[in-house]
Amino acid sequence: EDAFIHSTTHKHHIDSKGICLFLSFLWNTFPCAENEKPPPSVPISKMKVRDNNGVLLFLLLWAYLAMSRAISPASIASTSLSSVQHHLSTKTNYASRLPLRGSSNAAPSIHNVPDPTNYEPIHLWFLSRHGTRWPTKERMDQISRMTHLFKDARNVKDNPWIRGWQPPFVHMDVAGGQLHSKGEDEMWTLARRLSGRFPSLLETPYLPHRFPVVSSQVHRAAASASAFTSGFFPAVNIDNEIVQSPWAGQREAGTVNKGVSNNGSSCPERRPQAVAISMAPKQADPLLRFYAMCPAYAQREVWLETWLPGWMEEQWAKLAPTLQERLGLTRTMAPSEVEDIWQLCQFEAGVEGITSQACSLLSESDVRLLEWVDDVNLLESHGYGSPINYNIAAPLLHDLRTSLKDAAESAATSSSGQPDKRTHLLFAHCETLVPLATLLGLFKPDTEQPLPAATPFPTDGQVPPPRLARKALAGLDVIEDLAHAMRHDEGHKAPLAVDEGMAWVPQGWRPLVAQDDEGRSFRGSAVSPFGANMGLVLYRRKAEGARTGSPASSSSYRVRLLYNEQVLPIPGCSSSSGRSTREEEEEGGGPPDCDLDEFLEITAAAAAQELDALCQAGGSVIGEASTGTGAPTN
Questions:
Q1: Do residues 116 and 591 lie in contact, with contact meaning Cβ atoms separated by under 8 Å?
Q2: Alpha-carbon distance 225 to 130, whole Å?
Q3: What are the tens digits of pLDDT across the range 342-351?
Q4: What is the pLDDT of residue 591?
Q5: 582 and 116 in contact (C-beta within 8 Å)?
Q6: Pairing mode, strands 423-428 and 119-129
Q7: What pLDDT is stored for residue 43 in this prediction?
Q8: CA-based diameter of the chain, in Å?
Q9: How many Cα atoms within 13 Å fall on the side-chain side of residue 129?
Q10: Any bridge partners for residue 539, and if so which?
């Protein structure tokens, strides 16, 4: 897996081909075992090798690992500056994501931070954005129209790929917005790592009520849930009596009758665990698509798109003269064409792994500017730009709190000491994850200006009625496409065009994220890349303080926050310091975990907000900030 695996001081970058070599060696070398792992006590010299190729594969793997480099989290941030794949904002694939910052350096990996001493994990609440997807239909159309731009380009010598360029989405409309095969791999490998990190959660047989899985009613989210669960839950043996029934095909029955699986080994035939996935209708899903149910949010978003795209075009316009020269255009390049190139670059680099075409037109500073513009848009639409953005995630926070509380109470009264529900898995979107992270107080912008406690809401007719605002959002695949749709709608253009000077923005508005802040905490490629995820692990004390039958208490249960497989301190929790386990233990403390009772206390007010009250369109509630401890106040 091309993902970084942190320790508190080092990070190893492991290529997926190396993993394949290793697995191939194991397959050819070790006999099947009940736990599907090689006997640890058998020396290599005495292993029974089925295929001589296994030895060759092992030697190749050994040589490969010998040449691998170990680099620190700090160095990955610097070496990746020249790689556009790490700076595609929310279009960054999971393997290329940037590390999250802890209290000082990169936050430690969950794979290198041990469980709290004398505690065991008993429950996992987990929310994931879908994996890498195809561009939406609107973005496919936008990129396809670039044929005209490249036909006007004269500098073919420096850009030979332009000659004969064809849109990459011919007859691909049906794939618009769907999960890409790269996204399937991201979700499956993520699940394998998590199941390996918390194997005790999966010791009981699968039942839907023990391991509930919820997805939004969007194909890419549901497909991500399917890919994840196929890697998360252990595979199960197929009943030979069923396979060998008279109705089985000759090939299948013959293969299994001989005690040999379809892959040619003597291992029993196995299949993925069948998993139930629950969904609510797209427009009636207050848990995962709360933004689609909120008239006030819809109105604010439509109003935002009457002026923010004008500001964004001003930023794109700064790059137009240089790109015009690099392409050899004999006409003036429009700012929107700069964004077209950026969209093509994001697809080529993030999905196809190509940086030698559209991305080659952009310098490192160009990429940073375009990434920053996308991040400002992300913050204004789903983050700290307005309280309505994140307060509407209250139903999701309520679900999180209920899941942890119920698990603790169930474990306290269970004869086994384990809760009824071991995991609670949810799969949704960037528009779901970022508001929840913001409501918890994560990734606050490093700015001296106060975060908005209210948003000026115009009364001059720029905002459509609530019903029309919701309709505008309901017709989109992703909210990001709203600005693009309005740009092509004569009735919803920004008040001033770019060539008329400074685009209109609300009085006193400035971007909350600084363009030149290299270490800023709110960054789309770190906070919400494809496959971004948040997990909260509930730990139960093994010692006498948590004996079976005793009531749940703060000393018995602790909560650990995981984000993109890194351990983060929980904002507002006095028992969560944010330092690594090693640093804490050296000073006599514990890991950056939070007592359950305190976590429930500091999140109570934010979770208690009613979605119906928050979403009263056109009311002052649009500008009211959450009163919870996790609310973004400076």
A1: yes
A2: 8
A3: 999 999 999 9
A4: 58
A5: no
A6: parallel
A7: 40
A8: 82
A9: 30
A10: 121, 558
Give pLDDT tens digits for 21-55. 444 444 444 444 444 443 333 343 344 444 455 54
Q: Tell me how far apart the alpha carbons of residues 268 and 104 are, in angstroms, rounded to a whole number.
A: 49
Interacting residues of 296 by C-beta distance below 8 A, sequence separation 6+: 388, 466, 614, 615, 616, 617, 618, 619, 621, 622
Residues with Cβ within 8 Å of residue 609, at least 6 apart in sequence: 391, 394, 626
pLDDT tens digit sequence for 253-302: 444 444 445 555 566 788 999 999 999 999 899 999 999 999 999 989 88
Name the residue among 200, 192, 182, 574 with its Cα closest to residue 348: 182
Q: Is 258 left (phi over 0), alpha (psi -120 to 50) or beta?
A: alpha
Task: State how far the Cα of 230 lies from the Cα of 219, in Å rounded to an integer.
Answer: 16
Judge whether 224 and 187 are in contact, CB under 8 Å: yes
How many CB atoms sit inside 10 A of residue 489's CB? 10
b/e sequence 111-133, b meaning 16+ C-beta within 10 Å: bbbebbeebbbbbbbbbbbbbbb
The per-residue b/e assignment along 51-84, b for 16 or more CB within 10 angstroms, e otherwise, is eeebeebbeebeeeeeeeeeebbeebbeebeeeb
Q: Please give the span between the terminal C-alpha atoms of the chain, in angstroms, as a whole number.
A: 39
Contacts of 179 (CB under 8 A, 6+ apart): 130, 131, 132, 133, 134, 219, 220, 223, 224, 227
The share of the chain scoring above pLDDT 90, in percent, equals 56
Compute CA distances 554 → 113, 187, 596, whole Å. 22, 34, 6
- Classified as helix, coil or strand, 290 is helix
Residue 62's nearest CA partner among 28, 22, 30 is: 22
What does the chain come to in residues? 634
**Residue 180 structure tokens:** 């890409």
Count H helices and E strands in the chain, helices first.
24, 12
Residue 161: pLDDT over 70: yes
- Other C-beta atoms within 10 Å of 514: how many? 14
Q: Would you say residue 574 has pLDDT above 60?
A: yes
Q: Give the model's pLDDT for residue 198.
A: 98
Q: How far is CA 88 from CA 128, 245, 369, in A?
A: 19, 52, 11
Q: Which residues pair with 71 in a beta bridge?
A: 11
**CA–CA distance, 333 with 67 (Å, rounded to integer):** 46
Of 412, 376, 418, 372, nearest to 552 by C-alpha is 412
Q: What share of the chain is helix, strand, coil (3-state, %, to 5)?
A: 45, 10, 45
Specify the DSSP class assigned to residue 139: H
Tell me whether strands 270-271 and 236-237 are parallel, antiparallel or unpaired.
Answer: antiparallel
Our CA angle for 327, 332, 338, nearest 5°, is 60
Question: Is 434 within 8 Å of 383 (Cβ atoms)?
Answer: yes
Q: What is the mean pLDDT of residues 332-359?
A: 96
DSSP, res 294:
-
pLDDT for 232 equals 98
Sequence-distant (≥ 6) Cβ neighbours of residue 102 within 8 angstroms: 108, 566, 567, 568, 569, 578, 579, 580
Would you state the structure tokens that stand for residue 570, as one six-digit string? 């929980």
Could you give the CA distance from residue 368 to residue 358 in angstroms, rounded to a whole number? 15
